[in-house]
Recover the amino acids of this structure.
């Protein structure tokens, strides 16, 4: 068993505006269209109200369209539009810019139906209307009837069908051959013809139909059926005259159209209904509006309330998610801060630790570093006293064998890293080979490298006699 | 009521409803939301800064370790705590260095310039030692479990001519957290 998804009903509002007499009067139909057919919800004189739901369309009774059947290769909409432009330049040279046109492809790879209408006429009619909001679809009466037959007439009945719809002096002729629209024409009857007998009118129409049939190389006119509509139900005599003239049987419109909710099938009401159907199904309609659904794509559709609601729900859901996410993140960070002890006090304490560490690092060379370097350079000298002050001086009182030896020592100490401003003061000769001296220097505040004492088990034996640091791995460095 | 009037009424009602909704629900929620975001950002910034400072401190402490021992990694003691721990630590280091501390007394507390909230606790130490152990003595002071800063040293021979026996008068100090800082901040 194959299940098919039910077609969603769409609503359309169609207005037929008759502008023959100067002031535009209209009738409006509101239809609901789905897969099962078309139902007329409201029909009556006047313009649509603000409460009428659905897309809006208008058909002008005094606007005449011309059908062009173009054989164009399958292409996307943009390309097809360009191809139509080129074709129209060929078909109506010099006039293409003076017409407004709408198009529809008959099938996926079939020919393109293009209907043109005089741009100036259409703009004038639009300027005279006071429809609010402006309709998204503009069509002609004949186009509205074509849309009506496409939507409400079975494909079988539409195989070879001719529609003759009279309204005032206009007569709309639609002819389908093998299910395809072959003629879409509006002829204006002469007043003499209009007042003449039905025979004369039927003959005129027959001539039109024959002319278009022979021009298109189509089948014989005698095949198929025709339907006749007007502003009232056609009489049996009238039908008989037309059957005789056209040589084909007549079918009543109410037996042909799957349409409910409409009491009287008149030309006016059917044009309004056809326009409403076209408005409800813009993708199936030929639209003469300057902004076509093809150009605007899906944006031509007004979102349905359910879509608005869905979008609003999605937006609210996204905001709620963002809100919850931010709050969770805040809570997570808060917990992390609490567990790690990173608080204002923790940060302050860390800053103090950092300051203390910097102070220790810049507290000058340690006494051990000075002693180590000094010991290596003064090996053999007899030291009597050492004084050291971290921010002051390093003073050594020692004994040497001669003044020359002291000078040599001073020279050795001049390039020490841990001490600066080394100078010898107070030399006192005690006997021939004994000179006491005092050596004063300043700890270098630019030397911060640590003294790295060796592991206790690797420490060498200290040299006896003077004060010498046993550590030989003095680490050089400087800030 | 005409459709236009009804439409005007509906639009007006909607406008008022939206205004009330904004005032009662949206505005407070948005406020809370903004505060939560700001708080989270501030906390994140604080954590980042904390980690940065922590890394910097650890790097400096790593460089200080050879000069001041493992004690540089410990949290700063308060002055009261240091009064107990510092003399004990120094005495142990002197003992490990092969010398004998004759006298160890707390000299006093002075403020450490440029580091608010931190004092230097000073210790006066008198040591009798043999000449060869002097370097070892200072090496052990470098390994004490409290950072030891050698403020001043006086190495003299108590008896002239006897170069093996030396007397060292040291002033040592260690940084400690100021007392009122601790009281003001129980953590």
């Amino acid at each position: 068993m194959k299940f098919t998804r039910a077609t969603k009903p769409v609503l359309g509002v169609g207005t037929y505006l008759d502008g023959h007499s100067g002031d535009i009067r209209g009738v409006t139909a509101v239809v609901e269209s789905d897969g099962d057919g078309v139902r007329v919800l409201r029909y009556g004189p006047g313009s649509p109200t603000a409460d009428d739901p659905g897309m809006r369309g208008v058909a002008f009774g005094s606007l005449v369209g011309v059908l062009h059947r173009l054989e164009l290769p399958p292409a996307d909409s943009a390309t097809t539009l360009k191809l139509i432009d080129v074709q129209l330049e060929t078909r109506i040279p010099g006039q293409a810019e003076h017409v407004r046109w709408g198009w529809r492809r008959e099938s996926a790879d079939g020919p393109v139906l293009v209907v043109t209408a005089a741009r100036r006429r259409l703009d004038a009619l639009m300027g005279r209307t006071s429809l609010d909001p402006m309709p998204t679809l503009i069509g002609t009466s004949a186009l509205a009837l074509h849309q009506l037959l496409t939507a409400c007439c079975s494909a079988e009945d539409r195989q070879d069908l001719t529609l003759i719809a009279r309204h005032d002096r206009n007569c709309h002729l639609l002819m389908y051959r093998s299910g395809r629209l072959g003629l879409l024409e509006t002829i204006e009857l002469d007043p003499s013809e209009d007042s003449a007998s039905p025979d004369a009118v039927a003959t005129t129409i027959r001539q039109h139909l024959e002319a278009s049939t022979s021009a298109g190389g189509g089948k014989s006119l005698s095949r198929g059926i025709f339907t006749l509509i007007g502003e009232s139900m056609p009489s049996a005599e009238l039908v008989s005259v037309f059957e005789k003239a056209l040589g084909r049987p007549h079918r009543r419109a109410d037996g042909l159209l799957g349409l409910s909710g409409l009491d009287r099938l008149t030309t006016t009401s059917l044009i309004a209904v056809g326009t409403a159907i076209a408005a409800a199904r813009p993708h199936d309609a030929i639209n003469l509006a300057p902004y076509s659904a093809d150009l605007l794509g899906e944006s031509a559709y007004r979102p349905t309330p359910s879509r608005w609601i869905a979008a609003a729900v999605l937006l609210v859901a996204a905001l709620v998610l963002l809100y919850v996410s931010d709050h969770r993140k805040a809570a997570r960070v808060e917990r992390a801060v609490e567990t790690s002890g990173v608080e204002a006090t923790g940060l302050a304490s860390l800053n103090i630790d950092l300051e203390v560490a910097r102070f220790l690092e810049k507290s000058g060379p340690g006494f051990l570093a000075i002693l180590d370097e000094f010991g290596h350079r003064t090996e053999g000298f007899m030291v009597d006293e050492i004084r050291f002050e971290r921010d002051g001086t390093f003073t050594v009182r020692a004994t040497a064998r001669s003044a020359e030896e002291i000078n040599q020592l001073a020279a050795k100490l001049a390039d020490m890293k841990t001490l600066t401003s080394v100078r010898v003061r107070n030399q006192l000769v005690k006997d021939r080979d004994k000179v006491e001296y005092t050596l004063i220097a300043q700890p270098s505040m630019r030397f911060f490298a640590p003294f790295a004492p060796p592991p206790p088990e690797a420490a060498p034996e200290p040299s006896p006699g003077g004060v010498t640091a046993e550590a030989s791995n003095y680490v050089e460095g400087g800030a | 009521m005409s459709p236009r009037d009804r439409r005007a009424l509906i639009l007006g009602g909607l406008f008022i409803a939206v205004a009330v909704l904004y005032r009662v629900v949206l505005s407070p929620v948005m406020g809370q939301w903004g505060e939560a975001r700001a708080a989270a950002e501030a906390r994140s910034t604080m954590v980042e800064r904390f980690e940065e400072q922590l890394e910097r401190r650890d790097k400096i402490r790593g460089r200080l370790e050879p000069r001041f021992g493992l004690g540089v990694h410990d949290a700063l003691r308060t002055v009261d705590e240091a009064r107990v721990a510092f003399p004990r630590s120094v005495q142990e280091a002197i003992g490990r260095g092969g010398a004998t501390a004759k006298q160890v007394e707390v000299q006093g507390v002075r403020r450490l310039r440029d580091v608010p909230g931190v004092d230097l606790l000073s210790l006066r130490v008198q040591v009798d030692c043999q000449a060869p152990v002097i370097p070892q003595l200072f090496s052990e002071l470098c390994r004490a479990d409290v950072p030891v800063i050698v403020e001043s040293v006086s190495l003299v021979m108590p008896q002239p001519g006897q170069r093996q026996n030396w007397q060292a008068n040291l002033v040592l100090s260690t940084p400690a957290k100021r007392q009122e800082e601790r009281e003001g901040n129980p953590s």
About this structure: The first helix of chain B runs from residue 3 to 68.
